[in-house]
Prior knowledge:
The chain contains 14 helices and eight strands.
Amino acid sequence: MLHYLDFEKPIAELEGKIEELRHITGSGEVNIADEVTKLQTKVDKQLRTIYSKLNAWQKTQVARHQDRPHAIDYINAIIDDFTPLAGDRLFGEDNAIVGGLGRFRGRSVMVMGIEKGGDTEERVHHNFGMAKPEGYRKAQRLMKMADRFGLPIIALVDTPGAFPGADAEARGQAEAIAKSIEISFQIKVPFVSVIIGEGGSGGAIALACANTVLILEHSIYSVISPEGCASILWRDGAEAKTAAEALKLTAKDLMDLGVVDVVIPEPLGGAHRDPQSMYMALGAELEHAIYKMDDIDGGQLRAKRRERFMELGQKGLV
């Protein structure tokens, strides 16, 4: 069962009628198949109209959609023989960050992802995609392992930000994020990050200091959440819509600013409406991004990665 956002009410009504018709036994007076086809055409038209005009706040809602595919979904779809690796070898395991070894289209890779979880139980288990220091230290361990064995790294980012709790701060949250960024600039293997949903604050950039940064069409990537920005600037979380526009967090804005390299189109109505097509599209872009780095020396890969983010810093974007 699909969950609809506020601006999708016209679509919800039409698809509700389609479901009603599909449960009606044909009486001969009405050609149900023809009616369903007509309504489906209207649905597609509405989706195309609505999704071509989404504002920044509506994009934020789509990026957070509860039916949107998560990191584990992409890993299961595009990574073969995935073997998860756990623990940071310092404190413990963090379920917000999943990672391990696998094969992507015939080659061994290291894959990491920030996982939000699907239903309530999964979200609690994965701490709603908010990693603690041990999660980032696990990511550091996996990056170092990939570097040691010459494995390309794929990172799937979907987080509102790092966990802000007192226990995380006590264990060195800021240091763990900073160290992850530092190690990202030290490794000599191809590194590709994908913003698959929400890329929030340092919690996202810890896994996104890559040679190539991809973003899905309706994903967002920002230094702070719209709600957080609104509470700081206007002392009012209700100004989140205004903040979303000001933050320039949409894929188009980020592409214009040079923060991301490729915007991957999503199926009509968002990735959650046709996950299989989204998996195929992401897989194709990942393959292209990794293979075009095959002939680049490790030292050059590292240097290019550093230069990329230094240039962003000089523009005041990071």
